[in-house]
Amino acid sequence: MMPSIAKPVLKWAGGKRQLLNVIDQHLPAEVMDGKITRYHEPMMGGGAVFFHMVEKYGATIEEYYISDYNWDLFVMYRVIQSKLPGLILELRKLADEYHPLPPTQKGDKDGARIRMFKRIRDEYNEDKWNRTMYQKDGLTFRTEFSKEWVRRSALTIFLNRNCFNGLYRVNKNGKFNVPHGRYSKPEIVGEKNLKAVNKALRGYIFQ
Which pLDDT does position 207 carry in this prediction? Predict the structure, then answer.
């Protein structure tokens, strides 16, 4: 059986999965012949380019330094990298509650799935997360691992998989405000891909 190739965990604005062949054509020749052995990506986003580089050039690129200014992305990748079983468990709980609920129909303003989505969104937007997100100055992001990150990452993935068009959007107060989407059976856990992403991130530095 062919090993799974990691794919983006989230739908992300500006994703480059459709441009990978074009990006390959513009890479330095030293990448192709193995002379470049270090890769930096300051804005990882959904990760399509990084996963492609690991898959295609992983035999010669030895060091990967990846980052993103979005705190939720930073947290999610760190959790996938080091706490994957806990994340899968949290996602299964959410999926087991959500999937049996009646799917939302066109024009629905209310419904069991919408109410659950709003409850999860409200949890995601609670001010309590600020203590986990920011240093005492209220501006600098925390980077030391917290056990609360597993739940936060599960919420990020759940909202992304079930919100309208998979958007990530926050208001001026930093609160996620995308409404519920309409999908009959969205993939919430995606365990196979999460394991592939975990493998792709293994040993690399996310900062």
Answer: 65
